[in-house]
Amino acid sequence: MNRLLQRQLKRIQLLENEQPSYNQWRSFIQLIEVAYDEADQHRYTLERSLNLSSEEMMDLNEKLKTSYEARLSSILNAIPDIIFLFDEDGRFIEIMSGRNEGMFSDKNEIIGKEVHDVFSTDLAENFLLAIQNSIKTNKLAVINYDQDVNGKKCYYQGRALPTELNINGKSTVVFVAVDITEIHQAQIQQRLISTMFDSGQEGMLILDERLKIVSANKAYGMFMRQDIESIIGESPLFISNKSMHSSGTSILDELQHDHHWVGEISGRDKSGRIYPIWLTINKVEDDEGDISHFVAILTDVSEIKKSQQELEHVATHDFLTDLPNRVLFQDRLEQAVARTLRTNQLGALFFLDLNRFKLVNDNLGHHIGDELLREVAARLKKMSRDTDTLSRLGGDEFTLIVEGLVDISEAAVVAEKIIQVFKKTFSLDEYELEVNASIGISVFPGDSKNVLDLIKFADTAMYSAKAEGSSGYRFYTQELSNTAFEFFSMEMSLKKALVEKQFFVLYQPQYEIETGKLIGVEALVRWQHPDLGVVSPSKFVHIAETTNLIGEISDFVLETCCLQQDEWHSQGHEKIVIAINISRKQLVDPDFSSHVADFLKKQKNAHLEFEITESAILDKEFVAIENLNKLHAMGILLAIDDFGTGYSSLENLKHFPLTRLKIDRNFVRDVSRDKDDEAIIRATIALAKSFGLKVIAEGVENAEQLAFLKAEGCDEVQGYYFGKPVPANEIKFGVKV
User: Fold this and answer.
1) Per-residue pLDDT at 422 exceeds 80
2) 3 state SS for 574-595
3) In CATH, what is the architecture of 497-730?
4) Which of 168, 258, 466, 509 is most enclosed, with most CB atoms within 10 A?
């Protein structure tokens, strides 16, 4: 029986084999109708559900397809390589790449063409060979090639691999072109570096983080006289052998602390000769910033040192006689004074001037005069000791420094020996010349500990001896200079001058030689003395320094110059440098730089240069250098004034933050008349250029001097030829000379 009818019979509770009553039949028929209605509803719901599931499945399939294509497209777009699909004849079937800029042409113009239609003959043959080899061997085939892309040469590695896809009965190959341009360039660079490393003249060394040798080139083996293979894994000699360098601490200590080292060490050639090597060691960091290696470079600086020594010799020795010149003489005198102070002995400075030398030059010619100077130098050198310093300062002036004296009488003995040198006539060409000299003597430290004073005192004594009219010598005495009363009187006058504002400032213009443009002025303080009239600094600066009045005078000059720059600025004039002379006393004052800093805080338009003398740096050298560095940090320019007349250490000049060297007027004065002065000027300019400094010459008074300075490469000039020191309102801005 139909299961639907059976369920309805159970609902009317009709027993088996029992005949239903009328009401039961009626009820049964109604239940049947309801059941069929319910069955129809269920069938409709089922059919609806089946229809919906089919649509959802189609939609899901579409989404899955879209998602797969999107993922595939994303993957292909992310791949920087170019993917070709070729058939066995080298025909382009498809091209895919995520880098449009890497495509050598529009892919729509390429698809359907063969490689010979697109590439050069050689490149097409390489492609076709790779395609056919891949199909033939059923393995990966690789080629390397280069191609111009957008005007740039690129390098690729092509990888061909057969597929199971057949198109029009032809086998296909996937060809992936990988851009290896960066790798190719890196390989070239690596080869270049390797070539440089292996064949370079400099010794090169690679150390690990433990400072053990990883690699070394042939030049290093020659420097250290070691076999390269035997030193791998060992520590370099220059680290383990402290005697190879003069550093206060070992190279190892400095590397562990600073991770770099630069300095000079000693090498030894096959003959045993020791020669200088410049060593540079620098760290190499990995990607995490940790030290992975050290690189050391060793350079033979023998020739450089030799050139430096030759340059120093030219700059410190007289061109004509090869004796020490002013520069070296000043250095030696400073050292001699220092030694006598340590040993409690005496020293003497002899200042010699040849009598009637000008007559020899004027009547017999400069060549005879030069020969005479050379012969005088030779005789004086022969009579002096090895520990003495004989110098020629220029012209016919010589100096002799003698140390280790017990009393002054020994200086008189030396003076008599000098006089004896001139007793014998000088045979020059066909001339027999009788020449003598006047000698001035200052004794140190008795007369002074100050080098400039000693020179001045000896010079004063020499003129006193010359005034006596015959060959002889004279010791310096106080009577030859100002008396103590005159000194005291000048001190009182200076104090009064400060109170009554008797000082004023003049400005001497400075010009650039090449353009004739005004580039600055030098501030020159003057004293309007009520009785003596205008007094120059040479008359009162020494007294001001001795009495500690120099600071107040300097403050006046500094303030006046800054106010003047403000006034020029307000008038619309271009900004120029004002050069101010700074005394030795100020430079060795530990508070000097901070005092200047406090003063400049109030100034808006200060553009200053401080001129210092060469000898100023010697006194309390560390204090002076510290002041120089602090002044430089404030933006103040620094110049050496009267270069060549005072103390100068060529070794240390490069360590000072200088911007200019000023050639002293004494050298400029005798241009065209004194070859030695010309040689000194040339050497000074060359020295300045080697240190990257500007050169300015003072005391230029004529066109001949200017032409010489310009020809020798001097940068800037000042002097009466361009303008005397004048009040501020007479400085001519915008006017070229």
Assistant:
1) yes
2) CCCEEEEECCHHHHCCCCHHHH
3) Alpha-Beta Barrel (3.20)
4) 509
